[in-house]
Amino acid sequence: MANMAQAIRMALHYGEKHLQLKDVFGQDVGPPLGGVFTVTQGLKTAWNTPLDERGIIGTAIGIALTGERCVAEVQFADYIFNTIDLLKLAGNCLWSSHGQYALPFVLMTPTGAGIHGAIYHSHSFESWASRLPGWKIVMPSDPLSAYGLMLSAIEDPNPVLYLKPKALLRVKGNEKIPGEPEQEKQLREMIDAPLGDRQGWEPRWPLLKEYKIPIGKGRVVQSGSLVTVVSFGRSLFLCHKALEQMEAQEREGVELIDMRSIYPYDWSLIKKSILKTKRVLFVNEDTEVTNFGEHLAYRASRECFYHLYSAPRVLAGKNLPGIGLHPNLEKATVPQETDILSVIRELKKENP
Hints:
The chain has 12 helices and 12 strands. By secondary structure, it is of the alpha/beta class. The protein has 2 domains: 4-191, Rossmann fold; 219-349, Rossmann fold (3-Layer(aba) Sandwich), CATH 3.40.50. The protein has a 7-stranded mixed sheet, sandwiched between helices. A 5-stranded mixed sheet has the order 7-9-8-11-12, with helices on both faces. Strand 5, helix 5 and strand 6 (160-165) form a beta-alpha-beta unit. The longest helix has 15 residues, at 4-18. The chain starts with a helix and ends with a helix.
């Protein structure tokens, strides 16, 4: 099975071959590195920029204004904060031009903890991003979703922020990418650049097929009747791992939802589940104050109040200035499997 980095790379190749994707660029995105996480290795349209986040996003806006499609990368979400004004301008371009100028570009950036990157490489960005009108925001939790969301993002006429969970980029999926070869070794030999001298190396792309996940549509990962757990990205992965630690009978009561899209989000799917289970937990690793999960909890309280058996809960990262380098500090800062299990069990005990 492909890992997430390979899945995104294959999606970008499909985009440059079939979806009129003309430019993929950012710091170290082109050869020889192909991105700090190797997500852009071997792409014909990939090229390097200076270390200049504002320049990268400004270039993407300019390319999109000509009607061409591009994918720009900020190497880590931690360094996207100095571009907020440009992101705001990109988001309101269609509205402020009275529909004359769409911006069909994708901005992808690795986000979140899990790689022990300390205060410089562990920030989450989804809560900040959810306040940017005009943007669509997606975050995959598995390779197949990463592939399908990228194809939809490339085709979308709006600017799309594609958040890559750093800690999941080397995690393999449970479902094959359409067109992926049967053997993992064969895929590596075809599309992974060799270590050392890469001069003369070119990928041998598999015959990839179209597979799109509509932006704004979540999915039920596991059905249950006692408590709803809503998450995305790495936190969804940890929720799934937490459920695997439960006994079968206890696990069956939990309904797990992968949002996939942070905005627009699939509220109809979430609300339907909450009305069934009457208990809900929102999990992510962004800081707990003004967390996007708080918006979802507010909406759950407002629209489902008379059906709930317990107050909606949000499990998020601690409100601290940063994440420490030592693994114990990181684990104490963002939700872990044990934290998720504890809150689920608390919720299941609460009755009207």
